[in-house]
Specification:
mainly alpha, 5 helices, globular, DUF3263, DUF3263 domain-containing protein
């Protein structure tokens, strides 16, 4: 993360991937490995941190708010 209020290229790419739709099971994980060069576990760790980052909200409000709603619904079911 940067101190300048901007996302890194990797952080922005994670949000872009999360905003896409994927054709089937495994396609997203394969794209994460090949396109971003990271393990899906690392991707989801970064994505989780971004959901609480105000820079991410400013960069992709629709995606971040959707992810936050999903997370809250999952917590409410527990």
């Amino acid at each position: 993360m940067t101190d300048e209020g901007r996302l890194t290229a990797t952080e922005a790419a994670v949000l872009a991937y999360e905003g896409r739709t994927w054709p089937g099971p495994g396609a997203k994980e394969r794209a994460i490995r090949e396109g971003l060069g990271m393990a899906p576990v690392r991707y989801y760790q970064l994505l989780n941190a971004l959901m609480d980052d105000p820079r991410a909200l400013a960069h992709a409000p629709g995606t971040v708010n959707r992810l936050r709603r999903i997370r809250e619904a999952q917590r409410a079911r527990r």
